[in-house]
Each structure stands twice: as structure tokens, then as C-alpha cells.
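Hey all, quick one. A colleague (J.T.) asked me to put the 6-O-phosphono-beta-D-fructofuranose job into the tracker so the inputs and the C-alpha cells live in one place instead of scattered across chat threads. No bug as far as I know, just bookkeeping. Sequence used:
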Amino acid sequence: MEIGVLTGGGDAPGLNAVIRAIVKTATFKYGFEVIGIIDSFDGLLTPTRTRTLTPWNTRGILFLGGTILGTSSKGDPFDYRTEGEKAGHDLSSIVVDNIRDIGIDVLVVIGGDGSLKIAHRFQQLGINIVGVPKTIDNDLMATDVTFGFQTAVDTATEALDKLHTTAESHHRVIVLELMGRYAGWIALEAGIAGSADAILIPEIPFDIEKVCEKILERKRLCCSSSIVVVAEGARPVGGEMSVLERASDGYALRLGGIGNKVGDEIAKRTGIDVRVTVLGHVQRGGSPCAFDRLLATRYGVAAVELIARGRFGEMVSFRPPHITSVPLEEAIKGLKLVDPDGEIVMAAEAMGVTFGR
Ligand code: F6P
């Protein structure tokens, strides 16, 4: 059995931990061979770019951020376009031929929503696929947690701890813009763990007046410093998300800018000095936390177990306390968003955190 492995979409801490677990389990438990595909599906175009993976050439990568295989969030073989090209080309048949020529029996796709959708289309073309859910955004429906998320939350929480001290010294409002695309999970969880006074997420359109009321109330009662966490996908009631770049189908390739807009409004309406920090790709980098190392390792092992049982077309999934699996088509059905009336939001509101509603 020859297992191909690729990492697709934006990177996330824990990718290397999955690769390592796949290689070790495939080699030691089953005697399968593993071949790594370089730069996601791009490595399956002609000329193909691959490297043989063994337990010995993947030593020491458990704690490394990024991916030793490289990744790409642009190369969809079903709609492939080179830099600047407007119309896409369907190169999927080249990828299918190359997978067969290399001798890959099953392809493990470690990716988020976008990469898993591409993987599902290859499954429909007769390629055996096993999916592993990855994204710092934690927005995949068919799993409770994706690896990379917890590390991103920890990084954002640490940033908030630091912002509190400087905000307090200068009696300022500091706005922190966090990633998460259409989902507010990182902002919500880091916002609570990092003791934010306002948390603005895509799932709860905000009224800036409510946010300012909270800040002014704090000034009256205790302190003129406040911390506002804004998810990059947050938007005002009746307003739009701040999109920096769109794909031809309208999908937001890059969100950003809402932190500055919120900061400007707060300064104008409250008269308090405001500073804005955009944490950006720091959230995607660095060493995975222990939780993500463990989850990524369990996912990698489970992916090989699916292969050994011939269970193709499935994605491994975490339904605590178990690692299980779901059909790929279920995994890509929709996004998992924050429930605006769920327990976590309610807990924050009970403690006086405003969501601007
Ligand atoms: O999906 C992960 C993510 O980091 C999002 O939170 C963010 O919107 C996006 O990727 C950024 O992508 P890029 O690396 O293309 O800037």
C-alpha cells in the first residue's frame, strides 16, 4: 500500500504532528509506504513534486509549526489559474493520471473546508481519499475541534495579556483584530480567556453605540482602559464584512480592516485614545500547544487505521472523548459557526462582556 499525503490551504500548528503520526503508524504498524506531496495539489501537476517519507526523515518535527511539505491556498486543480489569470482551467485529469503513475493507492488530504471540497471531487473521480480536518478557524461542522485552533487561541490570549498592561498604563482602549474568517471561535474563546470587555464576532452583528456605552460605563465606574476583541469577519448591524480580496465566486479570500474601522468609531464617539493591533499570521505560526500535538497525533493514527480498513471517502473527526470518522460529503456540508445564544456567549454576557447587541 502506498499512501500519498498532502497539506492544503492555510497552514496551522500541528500539520507536522499529523504527518509524523501517519508515517510512524503506516511504517511500524502496517508496513505501508508514505509519499509526501509538495505544496498541496500543485505537487501533483506535471512535473510532479514528491518525497518519500520515513520515520527517520520525519524525526524531530512534532513540535515544529508550519508544514514540512509546503502548502498552497490557491491551487485548485479544478479551477487552476496562474498569477494574474482571470479564467481558470480544469487540470484535474492531469492530477488523476499523475496519482496513478506515482502509484498512490490512497491520498490523505490534511486540510480545511476548501481542500476537503477539492478532495471530495477527486474521490468522485475514483481516487481513494481520507481527510484530516485542519484549520485555526475551527469552523468545520463534522468535528468538535480542528487541530491548530487551540494554539491560535493560546497565542491570541497571550497577546491580550500583554495588551492589557499597556492599555491600562496609558488609559487607552486597545482593539485587537483576530482571524477566523466567517466564524468567531478564535475571538470568542481568546476574548474570554484574555478578559476582553467587548467581543465582536461575525455571528452577532454589532451596534457600535453599545460597545461605546460599555467603554464609557467602565470609565465612569473603574478605569479608562478597555480591551475590544474584533474577529476579522465581524460586521455592524446592517453592514458588510470588510473584505480585502474576493474569489470569482464571491468567496472572501482575505478579510481584514474591521479592527481599524471599529477603533476609529470608538475614538470618535468616546474621545478616548485608541490603538489598534492586528495579530494576523502570528496566530498561524509557531509550535503547536500540547492539546494540538495530541489531537493531531490521534488524527494521523486514525487516518491510517481508516486506510487499513479500506474506509475511503471519510474524514477523521473528534467527538470527545472519541476519535471517529464521517463521510467526506458530510464534512464539507456547511460551516460550524458560534451559536449567538449558546452557553459560551451567555457566560461572557453574564459577566458583563458586550457583543454589541
Ligand atoms: O483559514 C485560516 C486563515 O488564517 C483565516 O483565519 C484567515 O482569514 C485566512 O486564513 C488568511 O489567509 P492567508 O494566509 O491567505 O492570508
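Adding what we noticed when we looked at it: The chain has a mean pLDDT of 96. Residues 150-285 form a domain with the Rossmann fold fold (CATH 3.40.50.460).
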